[in-house]
Design brief:
Blueprint: E1 5-8, H1 10-17, E2 25-30, E3 33-38, E4 43-47, H2 53-56, H3 64-68, E5 74-79, H4 80-90, E6 96-102, E7 105-107, E8 117-121, H5 122-132, E9 138-143, E10 149-155, E11 161-167, E12 171-173
Antiparallel strand pairs: 1-11, 2-3, 3-4, 5-9, 6-7, 6-8, 8-12, 9-10, 10-11
Length: about 180
Amino acid sequence: QKGKLIIESKSLVEKMRCFISKNSFVKLIFKDKILRIKQSSKKIELISPLMDRFYSNELEEVPIEGLEKLNYNSHISLSKCQINDIISKQEKFSNIFKITPNNNSFSFPKQDPPGSFLGFSLIDIKRIIIFLFEEYNRINFYIKEGFPLKIEIKLRSLGNSKLFFYLSPHKREFK
């Protein structure tokens, strides 16, 4: 079971809405990356050398209105070095990116933690990180039990628009 990768940026969709007709696509190109907006489903698809079209076709359609209203109470901002360190420690033991909620914060255990943890596809996380860190130095993670993992960056080149990645849980363990 693969985790789903969803990207949404309300401001980008709103700006493009007047330029696209129903069910048509507009392509926004950022160097070798292509973001594709489809108005009818209000989503943005990512197609890049990091993902083949088969993976891209598995993107789950989630309305922007549903995701933007999710209220996250735990947030952390990580640098490229910090994230790479977490990933390298976790991938020695599993293909699951583990997050342990701790009240209003969270940690990234190396092995299976003694309590409960949320798990996400490590492959999906690595794909997102590689894509984002070509342009940005820090990435924000938002977590809340029962919600998708939210990864956010600010697109300064597009008037401080925000780009969100939502990943559905890959595995959830309660011990």
